[in-house]
Each structure stands twice: as C-alpha cells, then as structure tokens.
Write a structure and sequence with these properties.
The chain has eight helices and eight strands, in the order βαβαβαββαβααβαβα. By secondary structure, the protein is an alpha/beta fold. It has a single domain, classed as Rossmann fold, CATH 3.40.50. An eight-stranded mixed β-sheet has the order 1-8-7-2-3-5-4-6, sandwiched between helices. The radius of gyration is 18 Å and the shape is globular.
Length: 252
C-alpha cells in the first residue's frame, strides 16, 4: 500500500496498481474532457497531456482506469465522476461513462446536476430564431455517483455533516460557480473546492480514505485534508504535481 496522506507524481494506472485491495472509501475525480479538438476549447491546453484522443480510445482509456479501481474500493466504496458533455450535448459523454461503469460491475447511485450559473455567457445559438438546427448550450455539468457493492455504508464512522448542509445538498441540483483562480494557479481545468467538499461530507465519514486518480493541483486531496479525511492522489504532470503539493503543504 502506498502511504496515505500523500500525493504522487505518477501515471494513475500505474499508481492504482500499487494500492491495496479494499482500501479506498471514496473516489472523487474529474477526468480530462477530451475537448481539445473542439475549436471553442483550443485555449484549454494542459502542460503536457494532449486532450485530443480519438473518442473511442478516450472512452477505452477511462474504462481501463475505472476498471482497475474497482478492486481497490471497499465493498461500500463510492465513485464520483464530474464530467461535461461535448458539443453542447451532441456527444453525451456522461451516458457513455455511465454505461461502461455499469458494464464493469458498478451500480448507479445518483446523478447530480451542477448548475454553473453561466447562462449570461451564452454565445452559441445555432439556427437563431429558427427550428432548422437550434443549439442547446449546457451551462451545467454532471456529477455521476456509483457504488461498488453496497449502496449503504456498512462501516461505522462519525459524520461532520450539519443538518442544513444535508437538507440543501440532498437535492440533486447544486448551484455554485466554477473555479475562478485557474490563471493564478496555472491549470486550465480545475473544479472549485465546493464540489469535493459537498461530495466528501455527503458520502463519507471522518477519517475515511478519499482518492483522486486525476489529481491536477490536488483540490480533492486539499479538501479531504481540511475535512479530516485521509487522502491519496496521483498526478502525472511534474509541473502540476509541484504546484499542488505546495498547496497541500500550506495548510499543514
């Protein structure tokens, strides 16, 4: 077993193979969206990773990662995947991910819609004021939740979830703004701390192990640390790894 409460500069497939079986309580991640071939997203460039795989190869690659993760989860382990669809919903990535997760033996827990409050930025209309071929921009993303064997947590633990948090967050429509500090941190595709915060508090106990295979700047690990969970995460890019590791060290 790799040491907990650490992050690692390695490819996630290699890293997952080093985890002990039945050791992860909760996985929260947002994989690359494979958007780079889309003209409107040309500005979203990672430091080393090229987000432009053939779409079938992209899904196959994700499938390999989550398939290898299944044995590493506890029997009541959960997986949270934040993903957006491509081309204003024309390519329903969340459906393809849900299908291969079910095919691999995971069970579906729920779908949460993340309303990003970005309607005012709309510029794509398609056939404006005509039913010929209207466009339906998606100012939201999906938070897909799966479980391994047991939908209910079978291990005992202590929660830090408040009554009001439970009332507010148990509705599967979450509204909060995206990360606004990406230029500051130097990463093009970060999710805000609010996303893992809600998932961690709603879906795990204090001291549970939280994992993110696509660490980025380790936002999931950062929030897990703040919420007194154990954590482990991988990031293949050395530049992002070093920035993220520094973020974690600053909250010692």
């Amino acid at each position: 077993m790799l040491q907990l409460n650490k992050v690692y500069n390695m490819d996630c497939l290699n890293g997952i193979s080093l985890l002990d079986d039945n050791s992860i309580n909760l996985c929260i991640t947002s994989p690359p969206y494979n958007l780079w071939k889309d003209t409107k997203y040309k500005k979203i460039k990672y430091n080393e990773y090229k987000d432009d795989q053939d779409y079938k190869e992209y899904l196959k690659w994700l499938g390999m990662i989550f398939s290898s993760l299944r044995s590493k989860l506890t029997s009541d382990g959960r997986v949270v995947i934040n993903i957006g669809d491509k081309k204003n919903g024309l390519i329903p990535t969340h459906i393809f991910i849900a299908n291969f997760m079910l095919d691999m033996g995971f069970f579906y827990y729920t779908t949460i819609i993340w309303n990003k409050s970005q309607i005012s930025r709309r510029t794509a209309w398609g056939s404006f004021q005509s039913p010929s071929c209207p466009s339906f921009p998606t100012p939201f993303e999906y938070i897909l939740v799966f479980y391994k064997d047991s939908r209910k947590l079978t291990h005992k633990g202590e929660t830090d979830l408040t009554k009001q948090e439970f009332i507010d967050w148990s509705l599967a429509l979450w509204t909060f703004t995206p990360e606004t500090r990406m230029k500051k941190f130097g990463h093009p595709a970060m999710f805000p701390e609010e996303l893992p915060k809600r998932c961690i508090k709603m879906l795990s106990y204090i001291d549970d192990v939280v994992f993110d295979p696509f660490g980025g700047l380790f936002t999931t690990a950062l929030v897990a640390k703040k919420l007194n969970r154990r954590y482990i995460s991988f990031e293949n890019d050395k530049k992002y790894f070093e920035i993220g590791q520094k973020r974690l060290e600053e909250i010692e």
